[in-house]
Amino acid sequence: MARGAERRIGVLGHGAIGSLVAAQIAAGHVAGGVLEGVILRRRQDLPYEQFSLDEALERCDMIVECAGQQAVREHAVRILEAGADLLVISVGVMADREFAARLELAGPGRLYFSSGAVGGLDLLASGARMGAFSEVVITTRKLPATLAQPWMSQAQRTELESSAAPVEVYSGSARQAAQQFPKSLNVAAAVALAVGNWDVVSVRLLADPDAALTEHVIEARGASGEYSFSIRNQPSAHNPRTSGVVPWAVLRSLETALGARGGLL
Ligand SMILES: NC(=O)C1=CN([C@@H]2O[C@H](COP(=O)(O)OP(=O)(O)OC[C@H]3O[C@@H](n4cnc5c(N)ncnc54)[C@H](O)[C@@H]3O)[C@@H](O)[C@H]2O)C=CC1
Ligand SMILES: O=C([O-])CC(=O)C(=O)O
User: Fold this and answer.
1) Is residue 124's pLDDT more than 90?
2) Angstrom distance (rounded) from CA 50 to CA 15
3) Looking at this predicted complex, what is its ipTM?
4) Residue 14 appears among annotated catalytic residues
5) Which residues line ligand 1 (CB under 6 A)?
6) Does position 3 have pLDDT exceeding 80, yes or no?
7) What is the total count of domains within the chain?
């Protein structure tokens, strides 16, 4: 891309994250990018062009995924093979070893991941370059109703949603966490990608009826030092599963990936 040229952006998905991301790009708030259109499952009354993925790939330089792990699974390889770059927010899809291996080989488009709801990933990734992490734990606390999953029994869901006190819903590996809670624990995958080792990251998930804010606490110990990041996000007004800051994280990631101006890396 010539310096100063604007890259054409397609936004995949138009829910809590995608709607804000599309509106901000359309309003000219992302340096180096213009909104070419949105890729939806069903047409909606929106002030932007709506196109199929095939049309988007003819016209866009970058696709921003805001649609969920399944959408990444369905479309990512085709996007990268068509030569468009892809920014992914549903990072947990990388927990699938076979799919992740396919994505690593796909190109010439470049694959980016957004930091999403959590922070400290820059320091963890810097530390991982210095030496290995020996232990990383992420503890997430969310409202019970946001954590019910299709694979849970009715009894499990009822117990989850009726508990008056915090309940541990999951304790185990980051890989399994990102797959069992695909709309709630993408953050576990983001931490695993930052430290460059899925096997060292463990996850605790708590359903807490008093969790007005969504909490993620990341504790890590390794060659570079010991770290503790405590994050308490306001949930999105449009989707209580998602932290409200996530679309803004996507916009920050997008602007960084476009590289039209300098700034904090
Ligand atoms: N990395 C992180 O920190 C976070 C990641 N996420 C990821 O972002 C995803 C989206 O979150 P929200 O916007 O809050 O969800 P949402 O449910 O509000 O919106 C998702 C939208 O994507 C659309 N969609 C799904 N599949 C599609 C497809 N194949 N093509 C076009 N549109 C499609 C849906 O119709 C819906 O409108 C989550 O499922 C999760 O995977 C969410 C929160 C934090
Ligand atoms: O938004 C959040 O706080 C985290 C989330 O849903 C995810 O990682 O999928």
Assistant:
1) yes
2) 14
3) 0.99
4) no
5) 12-18, 39-41, 66-69, 71, 74, 89-91, 116-117, 182-183, 186-187, 190, 239, 242, 246
6) no
7) 2
